[in-house]
Design brief:
alpha/beta, TIM Barrel, six-stranded parallel β-sheet, 16 helices, 356 residues, 9 strands, 9% strand
Length: 356
């Protein structure tokens, strides 16, 4: 890994708010170890967290130390890369790999732990609410509790839960609660379910390199085509990694959705109120997490509007000071850069404004 101290980002006229950053409390890792000790471990979980939790590699050691530290090490890493504030979520797969009872009981514990860290560093750390979709009613109640008690203003859901997707109406209590409390849902990647993963594993393409985007993009499209946004028009979803590539597919998604509905090929594909791309422009915000690439950022800004694209680093999984420097140097108006790095995040997550 590069030494961030060798090229510390310069002072800039905006605050850098990184909006897809992860943590993992020791208590959750203890539960993970118990899951990994079983004989019937989910293959995606075993190949992702099972690897990071056991590998002696430099990358794995960096990730595990970064995930667990919510104090001096994390703040030092932020300072070294010029990050003023992190918006933090329980790392994937969060509680969603657990059995229902364990997940429902641990989600509030993780939120309490995160809230305590944010209270200790109020201008540096902001938390997202973790929930257990295994019990939609409990998840809705936890959104209300964490929002009202701690002022957490977003929810993280790590894509599928044991192969099930939020497009299934049995989960829509979660959407109802998120809309009611104006807490956008950050739909974050998860390892692919067993039914999808094998061919990706064979080629080493199951994780962040490709598989995460495929699976999470599928999840987002399932939500769009389910009609969820017609039922919950104010519901907001956040997608990372440049929208898991959906903005770049928008033309074809619109065309083929219309064609498929007209063909009546699938009982599951019913008409919805607008084109898929229309929902992307009104119900989604995209972050660039893991994609420090000016053309992709500018295209997405042009597609959905400058006010719907935010900065993210993807710490500790991606931690490279050169990427911060590249994004600081984008050929972009001062107003657009301010929105990208700071004010969009302040609005979406309801973070009090602090002048740069």
């Amino acid at each position: 890994m590069s030494n961030p101290l060798s090229s510390r980002p310069a002072k800039v006229p905006y605050r850098r708010i990184a909006t897809e950053e992860a943590f993992a409390p020791k208590e959750m890792l203890d539960i993970y170890n118990k899951i990994l000790a079983k004989s019937d471990v989910d293959v995606g979980f075993k190949n992702l967290m099972g690897f990071y939790m056991s590998s002696p590699s430099e990358r794995a050691q960096h990730i595990m130390s970064g995930l667990q530290d919510m104090d001096e090490l994390r703040l030092a890493h932020m300072d070294a890369t010029g990050i003023d504030t992190q918006v933090i979520a329980l790392t994937s797969p969060g509680v969603q790999i657990m059995d229902k009872e364990t997940a429902v009981s641990f989600a509030p514990i993780s939120n309490d732990i995160l809230a305590e860290a944010c209270k200790k560093h109020p201008t540096r750390l902001v938390g997202m609410i973790a929930v257990a979709p295994q019990d939609p009613t409990a998840a809705a109640k936890e959104i209300e509790r964490a929002h009202n008690k701690y002022g957490m203003n977003a929810v993280v859901i790590n894509s599928h839960t044991h192969g099930e997707y939020l497009s299934d109406q049995k989960f829509w209590e979660i959407f109802e609660a998120a809309e009611a409390h104006d807490t956008p849902i950050y739909l974050h990647p998860n390892s692919m379910p067993k039914s999808m993963i094998q061919h990706f594993l064979e080629a080493g393409l199951d994780g962040a390199i490709y598989g995460f985007g495929v699976e999470t993009g599928l999840h987002a499209m399932r939500i769009i085509t389910s009609g969820a946004f017609d039922r919950f028009p104010k519901l907001q979803i956040i997608l990372g990694h440049m929208g898991e590539a959906l903005p770049f597919w928008a033309y074809r998604l619109d065309y083929m959705h219309t064609a498929t509905v007209k063909s009546k090929r699938y009982d599951s594909m019913k008409p919805i109120g607008r084109k898929p791309s229309d929902y992307m422009k009104s119900n989604f915000t995209f972050t660039n997490s893991g994609v420090a690439w000016e053309p992709a950022i500018k295209f997405t800004q042009e597609f959905v509007g400058v006010d719907r694209v935010m900065y993210a680093m993807d710490y500790p999984y991606q931690y490279a000071v050169e990427e911060v420097n590249v994004l600081d140097q984008m050929k972009m108006s001062d107003a657009d850069k301010l929105a990208f790095f700071q004010t969009n995040a302040e609005r979406v997550f309801k973070i009090p404004h602090i002048p740069a």
